[in-house]
Amino acid sequence: MANSYAEAGVDTAAGDRAVELMKAAVARTHGPEVLGGVGGFAGLFDATALLGYRKPLLASGTDGVGTKVAIAQAFDKHDTVGQDLVGMIVDDIVVVGAKPLFLTDYIACGKLVPERIAEIVGGVARACEATGTALVGGETAEHPGLLGADEYDLAGAAVGVVEADRLLGPQKVREGDAIIAMASSGLHSNGFSLVRKILSDAGIGYTDDLDEFGGPVGLALLEPTRLYTAALLKLLNDPIAADAVHAFSHVTGGGIAANLARVLPHGTWAEVDRSTWTPPSVFQVLSSISRTSVTDHEETWNLGVGMFAVVDPEVAGAVAATLATLGIESWEVGFVGSGARDLAAFEQGAKGVDGGAVRLVGAYAG
């Protein structure tokens, strides 16, 4: 019979050690607006800066890393999934033009290993620092008997702010607007249940070397999600581009067409030209292993496009040039149309949004 929390499998002392190991990394995300440091019951954020807004709108987002954590666990590499978490959350917030203010994370694990938790949170903190987001708190919970000793799940939530008259979205999109694609860093953090099934069916382990990946499979698959927030906020502050950017779309679960359709007004459509880019090798290799075409996975993977911008066509070139100076490769893939059109082959809206209609046309380059 278990007579103590420790005998039941929960080690509170290990939790305290994990906090000590992560404190420095978390503190680096704190500016003067964060009060109280690490370890309080609630994270405190001084909202005085919002007094300078005419009509501040708070934007919130929540997400997790998904089954990509299974690869991190199998490969025993935990320093990149934190960036995946931050990317999934704050790059959703910036879609509406909001600047992220703060984020909290949540880790559920079977056994609390302080060094592993610190590694995970260190990745969260580095990504928060890169995106100007304060990591104000979090929770690590041991769930013995529910999760295996080496298993964990990672999730979080964040809050940002945008001036009401700077809000991006379908209400600003116009017929003729140019659609600019921004390159992804790889799979990001979506579609990993399919990735894992493809590898399992082919008898390929995460530690196996594949020539196409130039090393271990797991290492290639753990390439962290590209962070767009800092670059997009700078773009929105650029005098040329500021008023010309009408919408962003974060390409996550559901793939390319469905996510772009969410930010187009009802009654509009767009055709995304596949010939304007070549899907990165990770998508081609996985498709080859499963004996499918990359086009079969357009509703699951980003295939090399992690974010879209919908912009005034007169400044599309300037927007792409600005993104290049900010380290984001981009290219024009299509335009927004309206009027009568047979939409049978188009993806129309997603996740409850009655938006526009999008389809991919042509053949991929290369």
UniProtKB/TrEMBL annotation:
<keyword id="KW-0436">Ligase</keyword>
<dbReference type="GO" id="GO:0004641">
    <property type="term" value="F:phosphoribosylformylglycinamidine cyclo-ligase activity"/>
</dbReference>
<dbReference type="InterPro" id="IPR036676">
    <property type="entry name" value="PurM-like_C_sf"/>
</dbReference>
<feature type="domain" description="PurM-like C-terminal">
    <location>
        <begin position="174"/>
        <end position="339"/>
    </location>
</feature>
<dbReference type="InterPro" id="IPR010918">
    <property type="entry name" value="PurM-like_C_dom"/>
</dbReference>
<dbReference type="GO" id="GO:0005524">
    <property type="term" value="F:ATP binding"/>
</dbReference>
<keyword id="KW-0658">Purine biosynthesis</keyword>
<dbReference type="InterPro" id="IPR016188">
    <property type="entry name" value="PurM-like_N"/>
</dbReference>
<dbReference type="GO" id="GO:0046084">
    <property type="term" value="P:adenine biosynthetic process"/>
</dbReference>
<dbReference type="Pfam" id="PF02769">
    <property type="entry name" value="AIRS_C"/>
</dbReference>
<dbReference type="InterPro" id="IPR004733">
    <property type="entry name" value="PurM_cligase"/>
</dbReference>
<comment type="pathway">
    <text>Purine metabolism; IMP biosynthesis via de novo pathway; 5-amino-1-(5-phospho-D-ribosyl)imidazole from N(2)-formyl-N(1)-(5-phospho-D-ribosyl)glycinamide: step 2/2.</text>
</comment>
<keyword id="KW-0547">Nucleotide-binding</keyword>
<dbReference type="Pfam" id="PF00586">
    <property type="entry name" value="AIRS"/>
</dbReference>
<feature type="domain" description="PurM-like N-terminal">
    <location>
        <begin position="57"/>
        <end position="162"/>
    </location>
</feature>
<keyword id="KW-0963">Cytoplasm</keyword>
<protein>
    <recommendedName>
        <fullName>Phosphoribosylformylglycinamidine cyclo-ligase</fullName>
        <ecNumber>6.3.3.1</ecNumber>
    </recommendedName>
</protein>
<dbReference type="InterPro" id="IPR036921">
    <property type="entry name" value="PurM-like_N_sf"/>
</dbReference>
<keyword id="KW-0067">ATP-binding</keyword>
<dbReference type="GO" id="GO:0004637">
    <property type="term" value="F:phosphoribosylamine-glycine ligase activity"/>
</dbReference>
<dbReference type="GO" id="GO:0006189">
    <property type="term" value="P:'de novo' IMP biosynthetic process"/>
</dbReference>
<comment type="similarity">
    <text>Belongs to the AIR synthase family.</text>
</comment>
<dbReference type="GO" id="GO:0005829">
    <property type="term" value="C:cytosol"/>
</dbReference>
